[in-house]
Amino acid sequence: MSKSDIPKIALVGNPNSGKSSLFNHLTGLNQKIGNFPGVTVDKKTGYCKLDDHTKAEIVDLPGTYSIYPNSTDEKIVYDILGNKADPLHPDIVVVIVDASNFKRNLLLFTQIHDLNIPCILVLNMMDIVEKTGLAIDAHKLSAELGVPVIPMKARKGQGIDVLKKALLENLEQDFRPIFNAHDLAPEAIDAVKETFSVNDDYVAYQMLQQYRINSSLTENEKNLIADIAEKHQFNRDDLRRKETLERYAAINHFIDGAVKETFAQLPKRWTQKLDRVFTHKIWGYLIFLSILFLIFQSIFAWATVPMDFIDLTFSELSIFLKSQLPEGALTGLLTEGIIPGIGGIVIFIPQIAILFAFISILEETGYMSRVVFLMDKIMRKFGLNGKSVVPLISGVACAIPAIMATRTIENWKERLITIFVTPLMSCSARLPVYTILIALIIPEKTIGGVFNLQGLALMGMYLLGFVAAIVSALIMKLILKTRERSFLVMELPTYKMPRWKNVGLTMYEKSKTFVFEAGKIILAISIVLWVLASYGPGDKLERAEEIVAQTYSQENLTQEQLENKVESFKLENSYAGIFGKAIEPAIKPLGYDWKIGIALITSFAAREVFVGTMATIYSIGNVEDESTIKSRMRNEINPETGKKRYDFATGLSLLVFYAFAMQCMSTMAIVYRETKGWKWPMLQLGYMTALAYICALVIYQTLS
Amino acid sequence: MNLRSVADLTPGESGIINGFMDDTLSLKLLEMGCLPGQPIKFNFAAPLGDPICVSVAGYNLSLRLDEAITISIQ
Ligand SMILES: Nc1nc2c(ncn2[C@@H]2O[C@H](COP(=O)(O)OP(=O)(O)OP(=O)(O)O)[C@@H](O)[C@H]2O)c(=O)[nH]1
Ligand SMILES: [Mg+2]
Asked: Which helix (H) or strand (E) holds B5?
């Protein structure tokens, strides 16, 4: 084993056993935690100071029930543990077991132990164990297993110091395998050991079992192993079944001496009671719908007060700076482009925070798994899996982690369909666009005393995204063919109280990322856009006054009317105006003018830029204007009809366009990574753009 | 003798796992702690009748009906 300067320590265990909770305590980082299997779907490293002199690299991994992976996230564990050359192959494995469900959790421990990697066994969730009346004798267990055994309450951070100390101690364990692989297939194992100079029986046995998916082996080596397996009739599945049974027999033996049940499990009573309500024939769906309803209502109803406040603050800041700073191009950029652009994003913090708080609560309580359970049968009709619900729901926040979350779906076709349709779910970046446009075309009214009309409209937009997603899934189900089977063998975790600190942290972190990530793009695009909108080819812009005066010399215009004409002439003949004009013919049938065209172009990379673009475009020239973006847009007149630019038809058409169009480079990049090629992101781009265009066209043409 | 499976249980009823009728699935079920000789209890079904929730080895597991039918019980 290679001993690098910094020891590598991998956290391995069943899903939902508390690995990420422990990781966060050790590294001070903020890995996502949730009460359902499959929260972590990728490896993540961090550093921990074990004592004053020793630093260790800690690797958090997805959960798995055994060393034999069924899905993409589980395979990451196998890749790291099964390949000694992997850069993350650990020097020590910390196996974290949910001690309240001890037996099943130990299976994985025995497998890792037999790979002859030094391990430490952490008994997590001891708080639950104590309540259930189990008594686990850690010393005895440690003597039986020959490894350090450390009780822990990772949620409260208890036991971390003991673990750190144990990690520092010399882990020269005298190694004897728990499962004797050699007895089951002696010739094959000996042949592999000799050919590949492997020392451990179980390592050789694992190579025979899983050489096909072992990425560290060359084709040649795989063929060699295949030959050995065939020659000695290595029956993989039969042996694996025997292995599991033998391991459980050994585990029973270990438990006999070390674990005592003093009274029957009680705390699961709560879970039983709650399940009776949450999975009830009628109440189950009703509650689910009410929760969704509550989320959208609160996004609109609760968030308005802080939002209005932020809106006002930013527009006052602009006015203030404009009055204080010397007039000039830079002041213009700052007060007309950057500040309104940033303000256009900051204003959505309250909504984003509320959205993430709700999602975080759904995940923390364990309710998410029940939604999977409730929706599986419906989802299957659409070519999806119950587990697709997790990506679809978290897609409401952001498509990027949502697409990663599809890794827990074992069946490739179901996973691919989920990846394909997830970006149709309305993500938080669409929220600003929806909010502004809804405010423009839907009156602010309360119906029935409780329901905010704009909130209902917002919910309608989310519903629209969901319907588009599942209808698209259905179409794909009919097109794609597969023979691979689909499973739903899934653990239903017990309900837990959400940790409010964690919910608050999620709200804070996500809002921060949103503002900074979006802010960066918006800042860059605002600057570029401002330049493009302020300068143009030739000397037309300089001669704007002259030209306009000439054009309208016959008419009797007031000074103010003339000034407005000059400003719009300038914008029209700037570079940005020229771009917008160039695509105007294509978007005119949708009810958009060239100014909206500019927004469509800038939104191509990231749709949240819409508001900032609007701010920049409508602020240029409006020298004395002190109104907010919303009112500027409201006052915009369509010169052809003389009516409002953002009337119902245009507004709705634009809403639908933003709901369906693929306007997010990062999503495409992540789809490329998860599907390992450009085929699917390109199809997605084509499909979503076409869908957006056609639907917007139909809507505008019927309504106008 | 008629073979019963987990899918034949009524809510609240328990059985003892006897064996598996599906080779591929049995690998996964065994690793999840569904061992022959273990008691398995049908807790409740989803509102649409599928999937179902069973208790086995001290925790709750959700299974589809066509998966539950492959677990034979005594
Ligand atoms: N009661 C109790 N709950 C805990 C303890 N440690 C973690 N949890 C909870 O268990 C759940 C799972 O924790 P995670 O840290 O996300 O588990 P994980 O192993 O990383 O899960 P995956 O990433 O899905 O594999 C969360 O709801 C935690 O709050 C503990 O010691 N006691
Ligand atoms: Mg985790």
From this structure: strand B4-5
**By the 8 A CB rule, do A44 and A38 touch?**
no
Query: Mean pLDDT per segment of 10 residues, for chain A of length 704 residues?
Result: 72 95 93 91 92 91 94 94 88 93 91 92 91 84 90 92 89 79 92 91 93 90 94 92 94 82 60 87 90 81 82 84 80 76 79 87 92 93 92 88 91 94 92 88 81 85 94 93 85 91 88 81 78 81 79 76 76 87 92 90 82 75 58 79 86 95 90 92 96 96 90
ipTM of the complex: 0.94
pTM reported for the whole predicted model: 0.87
Question: Is the backbone peptide bond immediately before B51 cis, with ω within 30 degrees of 0?
Answer: yes
Task: Give how far A487 is from chain B: nearest CA, Å.
Answer: 8
A607 vs A659: CA distance, rounded Å: 10
Closest CA to A466 of A289, A333, A345: A289
Task: Measure the CA–CA gap between A252 and A244, rounded to whole angstroms.
Answer: 12
The strand pairing partners of A120, in sequence order, are A94
> Ligand 1 in contact with A630 (CB < 6 A)?
no
Interface probe, candidates A132, A373, A381, A387, chain B, greatest B C-beta count within 10 A: A373
Burial class (CB within 10 angstroms; exposed 0-12, middle 13-18, buried 19+) of A241 = middle
With a 6 Å cutoff on the Cβ, whether A388 touches ligand 1 is no
In chain A, DSSP finds a helix count (H) and a strand count (E) of: 34, 11
CATH topology of domain A3-168: Rossmann fold (3.40.50)
CA-based angle A481:A487:A489, to the nearest 5? Answer: 170
Residue A616 belongs to what H/E stretch? helix A609-619
CA angle, A466 as apex, A460 and A470 as ends, to 5°? 145
- Select the CATH number that applies to the domain covering B4-73 from these four: 1.10.10.10, 3.40.309.10, 2.30.30.90, 3.40.50.720: 2.30.30.90
